[in-house]
Each structure stands twice: as C-alpha cells, then as structure tokens.
C-alpha cells in the first residue's frame, strides 16, 4: 500500500501563514509542486518529511497519522532537501556508505546498495573522486542517490534543479522520470519545464494556497485560446508589453513578434496560437496581474 493523504494542512510562522488548508491524496507517479518563491513548497515538503510540525491539519501515510507514526513513514521516505550539502573530505562512494550506515542499513547490505544507487544515478565512473570535484549536477545526483538508499516509496525532492545548467537539468529530469514507477515522487520547482513531460500531476501553489490541482494536459487545455502571437513595430510592442503578460519577444527583420498570454485579444492583428505549458502556468498564476 502506498497512500499519502493530507487534510486541511496549514503552517503559520508567527502571524504569517505559509500554507493554508492544503488537502491532497498522493498516488504513485510524479507530482510536480510548482509555484513562485515563498509559495509554501518547502514548508509542505518538510511537514511531510516529519521535519516540521503542522500548525493545523493532518498527514497520513497508509491511513496512519504521521504525528504519531512518523517512524513508519521515515522508513519508506527519501528526501533531498533544497540545501543539501556534501562533506568535502569524502568521495561519492564514501559519502553514500556513511549515510547508509547513518540511516541504519544493515552493514552487510551497505556496499551492495551503494553500488546499486551509484549505478541508478550513473555516477559509478566518478564514485571514487572527492565530492568537491563534482559538478552541480553530479552533486544533485549524489543527493538523489542518498535519497534512494532505502528504496523509498515516497521520494521528496525540493528544487533540485536550482543552479544546474540546461544540459544537467535535462539529465536530472530524465533520471527522475526513470524513478517514477511504483513510488510517489514529489518534486518542487518554480520552473515549470522541470516537470513538463515527467509529472502526471501538477499542484500549483501561490502564497500558501492551492491555485490548481491539475494535470499538464488539463493545464494546457485550460489555456487554449488564451495565447496570442502578433508582429508589430517596436513602439506597439513596448505598449503591449506594459499592458499584457508577454511570454516571449523576438526581433524579426520585419518587426517584433510577441507571444502574449491574455484571455482577450490583445491587438487586432493578434492570432491565437497553441500555448506552451509555461504559458498555461503563467495564465493560471498571473490572472490578477494581467487584468487590464
Ligand atoms: N522559519 C520560518 N520563519 C518564518 N517564516 C518562514 C519560515 N520559513 C518559511 N517562511 C515563510 O513562509 C513562506 C513560505 O515559505 P517556503 O519556504 O515554504 O516557500 P517555497 O515555496 O518553498 O519558497 P522557496 O522556493 O523560496 O523556498 C514564505 O513567505 C517564507 O518567507
């Protein structure tokens, strides 16, 4: 059984609500937790990981409240925090063996399991190099490797692609996609393309509230008819940019082509085009901002 049930979960720091009444039922697959900085993603993940006390609400794993059955959840939990740090004096292999021992893996299993996770994240070749020699992407893959040591049923990854270059981002995305079968993965990001094509569900948060609990397909469909393309002179382009949510602006020989996210036609020459997921996300999160 693998069931995460969250009911009316809230977190308050002082007078500030970081999360308000979030309810969610998690099932195997990848749940993308998307929202701007400060949306409440980290607070939510830390509460699920039993590292932060909720102010209100309950989190259940297989029907058991994790306030009283935290250990049961921790046994099947893998967690890569946003600020995951590595120890400079270790090689990748030594670091993983150390963490495996800390997590209580039986000694007889440690070497084999560390070799397995190194293979999963494709770091066998560099496993005996010291960690400071790793690239940002390799460090994040070591982070995933440590989270996989106990073959978790629930894998939580908090903004893992921050600071990675585009090639590393893609590699990391592919790695996570390969891990989705038979476990719940929760991945937070403020960059929607990180979860495009890999998440089967999207939870969009803003200022502690759920703006949408949807799928990439449904989010895209919701933006149909609300993304426009228009090619104009520079002065008009600047005016449009001031009044509308412009997702891209490209200089052409004969003018400037803008892609505009707007529920209404932004310019008489504008034509409807297919939305990208990012544009659909902008529409969902920026509705108030684009009112003109
Ligand atoms: N320990 C804390 N004390 C006070 N306020 C906090 C604390 N941690 C978070 N907050 C506030 O709660 C809100 C949600 O923060 P949280 O880190 O959960 O959001 P986030 O979506 O993960 O953003 P980020 O990507 O910046 O981490 C923010 O307004 C933040 O400033």
TrEMBL record:
Pfam families reported for this sequence: ABC_tran
Positions in coiled-coil regions: none
Keyword line: ATP-binding, Nucleotide-binding, Transport
Signal peptide segment: none
SMART domains referenced in this protein's UniProt entry, alphabetically: AAA
Gene3D superfamilies: P-loop containing nucleotide triphosphate hydrolases
Span of domain ABC transporter: 4-232
Family matches, as SUPFAM superfamilies: P-loop containing nucleoside triphosphate hydrolases
CDD domains: ABC_drug_resistance_like
Gene Ontology molecular function: any one: ATP hydrolysis activity
Residues that span the membrane, as ranges: none
InterPro entries: AAA+_ATPase, ABC_transporter-like_ATP-bd, ABC_transporter-like_CS, P-loop_NTPase
UniProt similarity note: Belongs to the ABC transporter superfamily.
Family matches, as PANTHER family: ABC TRANSPORTER, ATP-BINDING PROTEIN
Record protein name field: ABC transporter related protein
Taxonomic source organism: Ktedonobacter racemifer DSM 44963
């Amino acid at each position: 059984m693998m069931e995460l049930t969250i009911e009316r979960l809230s977190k308050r720091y002082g007078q500030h609500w970081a999360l308000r009444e979030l309810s969610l039922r998690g099932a195997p697959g990848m749940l993308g937790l998307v929202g701007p900085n400060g949306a409440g993603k980290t607070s939510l993940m830390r509460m699920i990981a039993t590292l932060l006390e909720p102010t209100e609400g309950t989190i259940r794993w297989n029907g058991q409240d994790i306030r009283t059955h935290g250990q049961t959840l921790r046994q099947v939990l893998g967690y890569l925090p946003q600020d995951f740090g590595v120890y400079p004096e270790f090689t990748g292999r030594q670091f993983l063996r150390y963490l495996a021992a800390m997590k209580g893996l039986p000694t007889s299993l440690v070497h084999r399991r560390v070799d397995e996770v190194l293979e999963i994240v494709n770091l066998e070749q560099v496993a005996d190099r010291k960690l400071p020699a790793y690239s940002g992407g390799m460090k994040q893959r070591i982070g995933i490797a440590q989270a996989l040591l106990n073959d978790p049923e629930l894998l939580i990854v908090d903004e893992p692609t921050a600071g990675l270059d585009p090639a590393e981002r893609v590699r990391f995305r592919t790695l996570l996609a390969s891990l989705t079968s038979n476990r719940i993965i929760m991945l937070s990001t403020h960059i929607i393309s990180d979860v495009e094509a890999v998440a089967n569900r999207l939870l969009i948060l803003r200022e502690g509230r759920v703006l949408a609990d949807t799928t990439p397909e449904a989010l895209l469909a919701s933006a149909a008819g609300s993304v426009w393309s228009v090619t104009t002179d520079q002065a008009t382009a600047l005016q449009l940019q001031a009044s509308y949510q412009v997702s891209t602006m490209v200089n052409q020989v004969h003018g400037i082509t803008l892609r505009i996210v707007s529920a209404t036609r932004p310019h008489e020459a504008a034509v409807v085009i297919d939305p990208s997921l990012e544009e659909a996300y902008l529409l969902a999160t920026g509705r108030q901002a684009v009112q003109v």
